[in-house]
Amino acid sequence: MDELRLDGNAAGGLLGEIFPFEMTTAQVTCAKCGSLWRVGQAMVYGHDMGTIVRCASCDNALIRVGRIPGRYLLDMGGVSYIQVEEA
After folding, report:
1. Across the chain, which distance is largest between two alpha carbons, in Å?
2. How many other CB atoms are found less than 10 A from the CB of residue 51?
């Protein structure tokens, strides 16, 4: 799995297709351990089934993104809350 692990910036393009703001600079709080991270600091695992953004502290799945034709499947159940700076 380590060969599939990247830093959170690797998910920037995909998340940029979904969100109208720079998601890599958004801060998320892990619902499992309470750690606060910028998405760009998290760990990302990408493969054919989708992309998983994981907490750098406890490895909890923060954000999961899948794609099917014409749709994104987004699960942010591992995030307690997200902070986005105003533009």
Report:
1. 36
2. 19
Neighbours of 84 (CB within 10 A): 14
Per-residue pLDDT tens for 13-66?
889 999 999 899 999 999 999 999 999 999 999 877 889 999 999 999 999 999
The half-sphere exposure of 6 on its side-chain side, counting CA atoms within 13 A, is: 14
Distances (CA, A) of 20 to 6, 45, 51: 23, 22, 19
- Residues 6 or more apart whose CB falls under 8 angstroms from that of 42 comprise 7, 8, 28, 53, 54, 55, 56, 62
H and E: helices and strands count for the chain: 1, 8
